[in-house]
Write a structure and sequence with these properties.
The chain is mainly alpha-helical. It has 1 helix and no strands. The longest helix has 105 residues. The chain starts with a helix and ends with a helix.
Length: 108
């Protein structure tokens, strides 16, 4: 019987050692998983920040282009308005001149 008891005791000791090793491996795996998750979260945050930076750059560029286009349209509009005014002034002047000529012809 001492052999059986000794054998059972040895198996129990080996099981206890295996349980400790298993517990340590599980703790290591949990720690590594947590670390990997944290690193992945940081990578995602970094990628999101980079994308926001790129998007902001695109938005700023689009705003600048829109300002340029608006400025050109405003200038073109002002030029067209000025042309219409100048044309109107010329027609009024020509009309006045014609009225004066007709009026002068009446008295000749």
């Amino acid at each position: 019987m001492p052999d059986k008891t000794s054998f059972i005791s040895q198996i129990q000791q080996e099981e206890a050692v295996a349980a400790k090793i298993l517990k340590q491996v599980e703790e290591d795996n949990d720690r590594k998983l947590l670390q990997a998750t944290d690193e992945a979260d940081l990578m995602v945050l970094k990628a999101e920040e980079e994308e926001r930076t790129v998007a902001n750059d695109v938005i700023l560029k689009a705003k600048e282009e829109a300002k340029e286009v608006y400025g050109r349209l405003l200038t073109d509009s002002n030029n067209a308005r000025r042309d219409v005014i100048e044309s109107g002034k010329a027609k009024i002047f020509a009309g006045k001149k014609k009225v004066i000529e007709v009026f002068m012809e009446l008295f000749e």
